[in-house]
Amino acid sequence: MELTPQQLCDVEFSEQWRGYRRDQVDDFIERVAAAVADLQGRLRKMTERAVRAEQRAQESVEADGAARRTLVLAQRTADATVTEAKETAARLVAQAQQEARTIMLAAEGTAEEAARPSNRIPGPRSPTSK
User: Can you say how many angstroms the Cα of residue 77 is from the centroid of all Cα atoms in its chain?
Assistant: First the structure.
């Protein structure tokens, strides 16, 4: 049974010939009622604090989950970017190597053609020879 401070103040006892002094009983009941009111107020405040703390804890858990999801997504994006960069680098290296081979083959062909006697450029003629 919930007992309120007002119920304590409103209580009345029947009188009996050798009972307690009424003014002392009334004074004590008022002090008890005040103490109960104070305790109920403190309980209400503590309950509100507990509810707010639970809400903050839940929000923290939710924020933590969001942060974890963000970190996982960031890691996946970074991994994909690194993989793509490696693939692009490998493709560019292969392309550069192919171009280098092509240039080398062309240079070798030009060098061989220039080395043939029929393709030599005649040197300057001396004035005595005509």
Answer: 14
Q: Give the whole-angstrom CA distance, residue 99 versus residue 38.
A: 90
8 Å CB contact between 13 and 25:
yes
DSSP string across 13-57:
----TT---HHHHHHHHHHHHHHHHHHHHHHHHHHHHHHHHHHHH
CA atoms within 13 A on the CB side of 42: 6
SS3 state of residue 127 = coil
pTM over 0.70: no
Range scoring the smallest mean pLDDT among 29-38, 71-80, 111-120: 111-120
